[in-house]
Amino acid sequence: MSKRAAHPMRFGWAMLAMAITAPLWAHHSAAGYDLTKTLSAQATLKEFRWGAPHSAAVFTIKGPDGKPEDMTVACGSPAMFVKQGFMPKDFQIGDKMEITWHPAISGHLGGMLASAKVPNGRVFKDVEFAPGLTPSDVLKQADTAK
Amino acid sequence: MNITGAARSPSSIGWALCLAMAAAVLPARAPAADPVNLEGTWKISAPQLAFRPEGGSIPFTDIGRKRYAQNKSNLAKRAYEEYDYATARCASPGLPRLMLTQGRFRIWQRRGWVGFQFEWNRLAREVDMGNLTQPQLRVAANSLFGQDDVIVGRAVPISKGHWEGDTLVVATEGFQNNTLIDNLVPHGYDLKTTERIRLQGANTLEDRITIEDPRYFTRPWQTVVTYQRQPDDPFPENVCLVTRTTEGAAVKP
Predict the structure, then answer these.
(1) Rounded to two decimals, what is the model's pTM?
(2) In this structure, are residues B185 and B68 in contact, taking their beta carbons and an 8 Å threshold?
(3) Going by DSSP bridges, is the β-strand pair B104-110/B113-118 parallel, antiparallel, or unpaired?
(4) Percent of chain A with pLDDT over 90
(5) Cβ separation of B151 and A92 shorter than 8 Å?
(6) Is the ipTM of this complex over 0.85?
(7) Domains of chain B (ranges, CATH numbers)
(8) Which of chain A's residues have a Cβ under 8 Å away from the Cβ of B151?
């Protein structure tokens, strides 16, 4: 097979590889969140949807106009919480907690949960996308905080 | 009626398929060792959206009463997405609400397990009678906490069952916290139900349910639901997301 004739095939394989890997890469990507920014708020937990590889939580916070607004944030799998000593029971509907999150770059309210201080004072920290920290750094911090 | 997101667990779907295949292939035959044969098709005697507590009222804690009042307020506004994901999203209603289904359900009584196959949304529940090979969806956290904890509960956990005379006693725990006990009553992760299921006659089935959750109720409370035997006709397809016309209007778990 000549070099020239091989090009379309290589292109085809490359496209196939991209088609397969792009959704996987995108699924775990934090590209939709601005990890350089961290916002915080006093929040009330409305719903926690536990799941892997990502859970999601709905918090009610005070919106820009002072009215309550629901905000959905992505967060880690149950295993990530368990590794820091948190169980679903630590997140009860109606619990008030201090949260921080990396906002969505789209400008919509919401983003990726960075931390949550639950009513008993313990703090969960995201270990997957914490800027500048490796997961082991964050786990060490969590151990120290216990 | 429904539960978390629109998702049903693969396990639930698998069980529904198994029960459907069993319905097509196997003759109805309860194990000879079982004291009573509960098999057949059943339907609630009188449609009801809420459980009627024996003694007249539900013994709410302050947290329970507050969430119940919020749910009532949201119901008045038809704001189902605020509290009732079964109605809002066609998610599984979970237990024990599933036992208020207005559709029919079929009981399969086999060696080691009892299965409930629901007409509505093709849901299923399973009762482990001590010989169920499918493991409970537990995540052994031994290395982390030194205990075997259920990390994430389910809307319809696998129940544990045994016979006490002519009564099938079914205990269920390991719940999520985002379903309701009926159309309004909230519960948390610590919900436990104990059902005592027995025949009141050849064609009437009784389910006496004891409900416990110390976060939401000051003490256990009981309710009774009865069902009438129906002809064993095949269940037509009944998929909530397809059949409902407007939000919540056609959702009849």
Answers:
(1) 0.77
(2) yes
(3) antiparallel
(4) 45
(5) no
(6) no
(7) 10-243 (2.40.128.20)
(8) 50, 78-79, 82, 87-88
Give A69's contacts (C-beta < 8 A, 6+ positions apart). Answer: A60, A61, A62, A63, A109
Measure CB to CB from residue B149 to each of A50, A87, A93 and give the nearest one: A87
Assess contact for B97 and B86: CB atoms under 8 A.
Answer: yes
* Both structure tokens of B157: 């956990």
CATH dotted code for A39-145? 2.40.50
Nearest to B78 by CA among B250, B248, B244, B240: B248
DSSP for A27-38 reads HT--TTB-TT--
Q: Judge whether B68 and B177 are in contact, CB under 8 Å.
A: no
pLDDT for residue A80: 87
Mean pLDDT per 10-residue run, chain B (253 residues)? 38 51 54 86 95 94 96 94 90 95 94 92 91 47 45 87 95 92 95 97 97 97 97 89 61 54
Taking the domains of chain A in order of start, what are their residue ranges? 1-30, 39-145
